[in-house]
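hey can u check if this looks right to u? its 248 residues, i copy pasted from the old doc so theres a chance i mangled smth
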Amino acid sequence: WAVYDFIFTPEKKIAATSGRTDILIMGKAGEGHTAPDLTDTIIFASVSHADSSVILLSLPRDIWITSLRAKLNSAYYWGNQKHENGGLILAKSSTEEIVGKPIHYGIIVDFSGFRRIIDVLGGIEVDVQTSFIDEKYPITGRENDECGGDPEFKCRYETVKFEAGVRNMDGETALKFVRSRNAEGVEGTDLARSARQQKVIAALKDRVLKPDVFLSPKKILTLWNVTKDSVETDMDPSVAAILFRRAV
């Protein structure tokens, strides 16, 4: 049925308001990190059923949610604390307070899943608009390392560097590209980080549509299995197929 829905995209099978379906896309650190359920990547996506246009709006993680009495990036965590599988529900309702629109579906992926999905695709091509160096990119597992008494805790960080131009990125490189927040200049701002996240989402979509992926049943099956294991969502396969078809 998902294949049928991808081809014919029956609108009656998908939730929408005024001809648009709105999705909350979130990224979390996942197991092995000090705050595994905080969502530092938060993107509101709106898909038009009329012309297939897609609007992407990155939301700052530090937005204060009055009803929650906490920051937006903690809504998923608190939702899971209150009810099993309640993270998506609370994150969606909290985001609705900000954007003033109903959130029909939610998607959350952790760092390991993000890396695996890109690696299954054989990497993605990303247009790096501005070169930058981040000398304080956090090393997983060293968040609390005392670094032998080093007052600057340098052992907790590594240096990442990106040169301007179209770059092929594997999963680990793409993750560093979207997570970096300590570069000097404009690339160290939340605005630049949000733009990088949206570039990677667009690159992922473009990569999936390449013939070596899209026309390969083996690669699509592998991608489906990785996504199923790495992504939490309240979409069923038919809804995902319809949305993907509309967005391309």
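The longest helix spans residues 190-208.
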